[in-house]
Amino acid sequence: MYAVQIERLTKIYGSGATEVVALADATFDVAPGELVAILGPSGSGKTTLLTTIGLVTEPTRGRVVLDGELIVDNGWPPGLDLKRVRREKLGFIFQHHNLIPFLTTVENVMIALENNGVSTKEARARSMELLESLGLSQRLDHYPSLLSGGESQRTAIARALANRPRIILADEPTAALDTENGKNVMRLLKALAVENDSAILVVTHDHRMVEGFDRIFEVSDGRIVGERRNGSDNA
Amino acid sequence: MNLALRDIRHHRSRFIQTCLGLGLLLGVVMSMSGIYRGLFTDATAILTATAADLWVVQQDTSGPFAATSRLPEDVKYRIRAVPGVAQASALSFQNIQSDRNGKPFRFFLVGYELGGLGGPPVIVAGRPIRQKHYEMVVDRAMRLPLGAKLRLADDDYTVVGHTAKMVSSAGDPVAYVTLADAQKIQFQDDDNAIRNNRARLAEQISRLPFLAPAQAGQLAPQVAAIVGSTHIVNTVVARLAPGADLAEVQARINRWNHFRPLAVQDQERILTEGMIKKAKMQLGLFRAILLVISGVIISLIIYTMTLDKLRVIATLKLIGTRNRVIVGLILEQSLLMGLIAYAVGYTLIGLTHDKFPRRVDLVPVDLVSLFVIVLVICVAASLVGIRKAMRVEPAEALGN
């Protein structure tokens, strides 16, 4: 079973003369444990692709199947509990980490667990364990403003992983980091994909960061214009 | 995990400063309510302390507090003779203003009969007046120590006792002297005027053609004594015997045609509706305005705090946080702000209300009402922030 399946996923903004096709007929699937990059310049539609899969942007048409469950079928079905799906199946990593500034490192991870009904005590224990595994044991009670860029992104990764989601969506996770820290984050994501058997989709515009990815989709003008697998080129 | 408390913990100083500022505002609202109540208590302080059932005043007046009223003192004997009257006493009231240490010194002087109605209700220091002349009991607010001398109408009066919380309807502290002293202070002319009046009367009487000089000489001092009499009072108060019918007693006194017998409820209405109604309305209006201002301030603060957190709220939505958690974050902060501000205001006014120049009566029903109003304001104020938060799209967490 695929972690992510999308079929002819399309997003059109406006209509008539002002119509803008942000995403056109995107079709692919991602297996569990697979690390996939979506590569393209600014405005190419890669973030739209990510947000339609992440149930943040409603597609104009197309289908999205997450972890075997048909979630989107030509738009969001009425009554769809988007938050439940996001809580249970998805983890998000952002360009600017998006840590909650008034929560400490450990609390930033706990919030994701508590959202899923985990008790505070258990959430704390699991968060501490996760953060320690990411080398943040000395930063548990620090506020985000006191963390370095790399530490902040590792905390954000810990938050995304906290509920052991089947799918992790990362939007330019290295854009705010220097090259070295960026590569470290990518290596970490690769290791986590294998370790947790999670599908990880990473949006980036930086070719240097996609080394070691299982697959790379190239996006331009809202269309997937190329696909590479482990160094091969299928464009 | 309570997000509201976590946010407050992180922005502790800003939150505390806001609560302090709001607390001061609520303290002012509480003091307004207290002054509002105090006006009524002050206005009726003498009425309450006298504990009379009937206030007999000059006909066609609403005296002795709201209008001038003058009665012959001996009316009290007629009133005592009315069936149903257990006790009747004459009282004299006057405002006095003099200078003390270069500052205006105002008080309200009550003249009462020793052993009669209308004297100081409680002596908190010293003793009651025992001599018929030149002793006085003063309210503590006058700041006259025991043994102090106060000069009134050419005589020195010694402070022998202190009473407390006795003020006139204008808020001036009350001093007590005997009725005879009060009459002398209020009605007796100075020595020059007495001499002149006597000479004028003697001169006029001596010119009367039907009187022999010897008769005129004997009549003049008698007439002067009558004209110069100070046996005038402002009211006669009466307490009825148990079971006596107030209306019947009033009807009997009304039949005399020269007096107006006011029940204590009439007197209370004259004092509260006539004399302090506008002041009460003004204070009530101020209180309402201040509450509206408090509501607007809480609303603005909560809205601003929500605006500061829009990206956080978007992130929370994106990671699947339920709406009730986000609503709780805003609502709990608003309520907590209101509660802390209320506590600050209450503490502040509790510590200072005795130091206000006028009485501040903190009545539980007012405090509880304000508490409920503050909670309602906090909930209403948070709605603006909640509305904004609910409209935030999770997508706003992405990008720059």
CATH fold descriptor of chain A: Rossmann fold
Q: Which radius of gyration of chain A do the C-alpha atoms yield?
A: 18 Å
Helix segment tally of chain B: 13
Per DSSP E runs of 2 or more residues, the count of β-strands of chain B stands at 12
Largest sheet of chain B: 10 strands, mixed
Mean pLDDT of chain A: 86
Most extensive chain interface and residues per partner: A-B, 31 and 25 residues
Alpha-beta content class of chain A: alpha/beta
Main sheet of chain A?
7 strands, mixed
CATH superfamily of chain A: P-loop containing nucleotide triphosphate hydrolases
Task: List the helices and strands of chain B in order.
Answer: HHHEEHEEEEEEEHHHEEHEHHHHH
- Which percent band covers the strand fraction of chain B? 15-25%
Number of domains of chain A: 1
Strand order of the largest sheet of chain A: 6-7-8-3-9-10-11
Catalogue the unreliable spans of chain A. none
Structural features, described:
The complex is a heterodimer of chains A (235) and B (400). Chain A has 235 residues and is of the alpha/beta class. Chain A has a single domain (4-233), classed as P-loop containing nucleotide triphosphate hydrolases (Rossmann fold). Chain A has helices at residues 46-53, 82-89, 105-115, 120-133, 149-161, 179-196; strands at 4-13, 20-30, 35-39, 61-66, 69-73, 90-93, 167-171, 199-204, 215-220, 223-229, 232-233. In chain A, α3 runs parallel beside α5. Chain A starts with a strand and ends with a strand. Chain B has helices spanning 3-10, 12-43, 45-50, 75-80, 179-187, 191-206, 213-227, 246-254, 264-275, 277-308, 310-318, 323-352, 364-391, and strands spanning 54-58, 71-72, 85-100, 103-112, 125-126, 135-139, 149-152, 155-163, 174-178, 232-233, 235-240, 259-263. Chain B is of the alpha+beta class. The radius of gyration of chain B is 32 Å and the shape is elongated. The longest helix of chain B is centred in the first third of the chain and has 32 residues, at 12-43. Chain B folds into 2 domains: 3-42 and 277-397, no CATH class; 45-274, no CATH class. Chain B contains 13 helices and 12 strands. In chain B, strands 1, 3, 4, 5, 6, 7, 8, 9, 11 and 12 form a 10-stranded mixed beta sheet that branches. Chain B has a two-stranded antiparallel ribbon with strand order 2-10. Classes of the chains: A alpha/beta (235), B alpha+beta (400). At the A-B interface, α2 and α3 of A face α1 and α11 of B.
